[in-house]
Structure formats: C-alpha cells, structure tokens
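ok trying this again, last paste got cut off
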Amino acid sequence: MKHIKGFFIHLGLIVLCIFCMLPFLWLTSTAMKGASENIFQYPPVLIPKYPTFANFLRVLELVPIIKYAINSFIVAFFTVILNLVFSALAAYPLARMEFRGKNFIFFMVLLTLTVPFQAIMLPVYIIVLKMNLVDSVSDTMGYLGMILPFCVNAFGIFLLRQAFLTIPKEIEESAIIDGCNSFELFYKILLPLIKPSLSVLAIFTFVGSWGEFLWPSIILTKQELFTLPVGINELQGAFSADYRLIAAGSIISIIPIIVFFLLLQKHFIKGTNEGAVKG
C-alpha cells in the first residue's frame, strides 16, 4: 500500500513538472521551427518537422546579443552582491540584537512588500533623475541607475532574518567567549551558517534583475547600455514581428539563469542549519 501511494505521488509530481515545463518546451519548439512551418497552426505541433538552429544564428546577427548579455550580467551581479550585503546587515540586528522599536521596524519593512514597484516607480524615477543616475551623464551613472533602486528589498531582509533566528544562541555565546567581536561574529560565524538562505536570495535576486524589462526600458536612452530583455525587444518591429526570432532570443536570455541556478542548487536545497551544531 505504501509503495502504491508513493507511486501515485511521484506520478502526480511528474505530470505537474511536465505541465510547468510546457511554456518552455513550446518556446523551444517555436525557436527551432523553420520559415516553412506554421507556428500558429491548429492543432499545435510541439515537435518541429525540420528542426533548425538558424533562428538562433539570425538573432546573433540582428542584435549585439553578447553586449546586451554583458550589460545584464553587470547589473545582475552588482544587484545580487548589494542585496546580499545590505539584507544581511539589516537582518542581523533585527534577529540577534535587542533594541527599542525592533519589531515595529521589522513590520514596517514587511509592509513595503504590499507596495508594487509600479506604484512608486514615478517618485523613484524622479529621484534617479535628480541624482543624475542616467546614461545621458555617463555609462557608469546609467548602470547605477539600474542597480541602486533594487540594491535591497524587504524579501531579502525577511529571509535572512528568519535564517539568523534559527541559529542556536549557544554558537554565538561560544564565539563571544572565544574572543570574537561583533564583526567577527557576524562575518566568520553567522554568515557561513546561513549560506543556503544567501543562495536562495542570490538566485531570486539574479532572476529578478536579469529578467527586469520595465525599469531599464524607462531610464535607458543609449542602445549600447541595453540589457538583454530590452535588447531582445528590439526584435519586435513596429508593424510586424518574427516570433521565431523572439523565441530564439528568449531562449538565449534564459540560459544564464539556468546556469546560475545549477551552480547554486547544492546550497539551495540544503537545510539552513546543516552542520551548525556538531558534537
């Protein structure tokens, strides 16, 4: 009975996994269909009759995809680093220190999760303009204009605060007895113990930053600073669009996200306190 139950559970998970992968499979199918195949035919055909990589090569010819990818990597890399640093620095006192108003500050931070970015986009845009964080000033300022508005968020603070709370106080007390100061305790003891949570935050931040389209498309004016989503959008013309090329460009833009996840998946699936307390 137990094996039958396990079989149906795994079967259901496999079906759910296939269902979730259908959009990606359809995107791949569209990208590999030649001009002779109708991508809008009914009933739809998932497997191309004559698969080809010509659409991928055509995308590389039409847009400077490598340059756009480098821009996206620069923005995503520094956004991830700043999120890890600032979220950890904000989460540590909220989790391990006692001071007046701590819970109120934490709840106010959580309250910002209810505010969509679109609601504050206009004031953020005005602030960015006032600070000259636009590419019309310099390329560096353009990069900063894309990075700084997303350098920390409430989700990261909440995630790392919960991770810090799960660390036994005995570890902290032992480190203090051994002569660690506050910085050494934070950097050498506590941060290594929350690597899985840091990896989760890094993955979510990287995916969000890499796929961000709205904000870069608003503040960027120089094509050489376009990120990958904005650059891929150039494949769509004003009156027509070749969806095979758009699909191929989308697949190219997804590859770095998959690689980044595979590099961090070991930490992603680990328990937060694995190996924290040993005899």
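PB: full thing came through this time. The first helix runs from residue 2 to 31.
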